[in-house]
Each structure stands twice: as structure tokens, then as C-alpha cells.
Amino acid sequence: MYQYDEVGNLLSITTGTTTANPPVIQSLIPEVLFIGTTTQIIITGQNFLTMNKIIADNPLLQIKTLSITDTEINANILIPATISPGPVTLTITNLYGSANIQTSLTSSKLTFSPGQIAITPGSAGNITVSITPSLGIDVTVQITNNNLAAVSAPATVLIPASGAITFTINAISEGAALIESGNAKSVVFVTKPFTPEPGEVILNNAGPISVVIDQPVQVWSSFGSGPVSASIDQPGVLSTSIESGCVSTSIESPAGNSTITSAIISVKISP
């Protein structure tokens, strides 16, 4: 087996037994290549160990081999955003011959949702992978995970012809993991839930306690919802609209007007 880094440097060689036969290609994952991405592909078959090159009939595609065994090739293909959709043929050549497999370039986009997700150790989360617009065929994509200690995720996902499917990830330990396929990415944060210390009391989960605007020359203010109190002191020119949700509102010495529409417990306007 030959193992390479991301820039194509040979990292290691593992010896094995092979036969003096040309390569045989059985499958390609994914079945299509997404324009404007760097996509990791898996080619399965036989007699790959003596492979000396893998090329595409479109010279704009850039291919870097990541690893080779006698039955599997992992490679990255850079597909420029300027390339046109259409068929493309990949050719694998070894010491004894060559074999071809045809795929296609598509302008459809592969996306993950949500882009960020937070889960606790021992729990699970869901990521939806979509092809937009749908290609009308089943497509298998490879999933990479840069932190196996924090999160487990499937190695591949089959996207049905409808164009979307949801897969499950499992949180193992605290940390962060990048789950991706080509340009589609989700960041997974694994963290323990917040637990108050003994004696601590959570008084307010969200929202302002009060809103105060002091001595403006000209004010237009609208309170949409939710503060406990809102106070506006001594404006020169004032138009204030309170829509909903305040416990109390105090408007002192306005030179303009005030409109109260709903849900105020008390309103004070001082001369």
C-alpha cells in the first residue's frame, strides 16, 4: 500500500502480493463530481497496487492520490468553478494495462445543515445532506471527520434521488469535529451541559431587564416586546410607540405624543 499526504508526498509503503494483470474498476464514490469543489473520491476494484497514474480526459481536473491498496484508491479531485458540466472519464493505469470509468460534472450544490451543532457527550445529533437541485439519481458521498475521538459519523452516506437525507452523528467526548464532504461542512461542538454550582440560582435566561434613553433632543422609540421596564426621560421631541410586553413604561415631559397599543401593566407620562 502507498500512503501519501495532502500535497502528494509519499509517506509510507506497505508491501503485498499482486498479480500481473491490468486494473479492474468496480465502483466510484461519489458517482458525480461537484463543480467548484475539492472532492475526495474512492475507486474500488482490483490490481491497483502497481498503479502508476490516474488521469482525467478533461485537463482542467487536478488529481492527487492519497492512498492505494490493491483493491482501493483514495484521491482528491480539484474541480475548478470555471469548468462546464458534462461527462468526464477517469483512467487508471498500472504496469500491465489500464481501465476507464465514466462520471459526470454537475453544477448542483452539496450542502450540510445545520452548519453548526452542539451536543453533549453520550448524545446524538442529526445533519441533513442535500443536493440542490436534485439530480434525480442516488448519489453516495464520502464523509470525512477530523476528530474521531469527539464524534462518530458514517464513512459514506447514500443520498436518494429526491436529493436529501439526514444522517446521525454521536458525541463521544468533549471537543470539536469538522464533518465534511467536499465543500459541504458542519462543525460539531461536544460540550457538557451547564450546571449551576451549589447555591447558584439562574434568575433570567434571556432578554433585557430595562431599557433607558436619557434626555434625547429628538427621539422616535418603538418597544416591540419583552423588557421588564422602559423609561425615557425628558425628551425634547418625542414620538413613542409601545407595542407589547412591558411591565411598566415611564415617559417624562414629552414634547410629542405617545401611543400605547397593548399589554402594558402601567404607563406614566409626567408633565
Short description:
By secondary structure, this protein is mainly β. The protein has no helices and 27 strands.
Account of the protein in words:
- This protein has no helices and 27 strands.
- The protein is an all-beta fold.
- It has three domains: 2-106, Sandwich (Immunoglobulin-like), CATH 2.60.40; 109-190, Immunoglobulin-like, CATH 2.60.40; 210-270, no CATH class.
- Strands 2-1-7-8-5-3 form a six-stranded antiparallel β-sheet, with no helix packed on it. The chain has a four-stranded mixed β-sheet with strand order 4-10-9-6, with no helix packed on it.
- The protein is elongated.
- The N and C termini lie far apart (87 Å).
Radius of gyration: 30 Å
Integer average pLDDT: 81
Strand content: over 45%
| CATH-scheme architecture of the largest domain | Sandwich
The run of helices and strands is EEEEEEEEEEEEEEEEEEEEEEEEEEE
CATH superfamily of the largest domain: Immunoglobulins
Structural class label: mainly beta
For the largest beta sheet, what order do the strands appear in spatially? 2-1-7-8-5-3
Q: Kindly state the percentage of residues in helix.
A: under 10%
- The coarse overall form would be elongated
- Main beta sheet strand tally, sense and closure: 6 strands, antiparallel
CATH topology name of the largest domain, in short, is Immunoglobulin-like
Number of domains: 3
N-C termini distance: 87 Å
Number of helices: 0
Poorly predicted runs are none
Beta strands, count: 27
CATH top level label of the largest domain: Mainly Beta
